[in-house]
Design brief:
By secondary structure, the chain is an alpha/beta fold. It is 18% helix and 44% strand. It contains 1 helix and 5 strands; from the N terminus they run βββαββ.
Amino acid sequence: MLSNITYILMDEGRFCLAWVMDLCGDKTIGISVDRHMAKELVLSAPEDAIRHTQGTEDCIPHPGQGTPVLFAG
């Protein structure tokens, strides 16, 4: 599993998006969105991923090591 955080610019302001991706299945399995990059945002995306997958005992979490990217929408 790969996790990362990015910023998204919208008409309503800037949002932070955290997501967890299953690299074997090539799909996003957990997301979290908030206006602030706080620990709740970072912790809720993996919690969402665990709720949407079966059997996480063989998963190897890998956090992204880069700088958050800014997307304008």
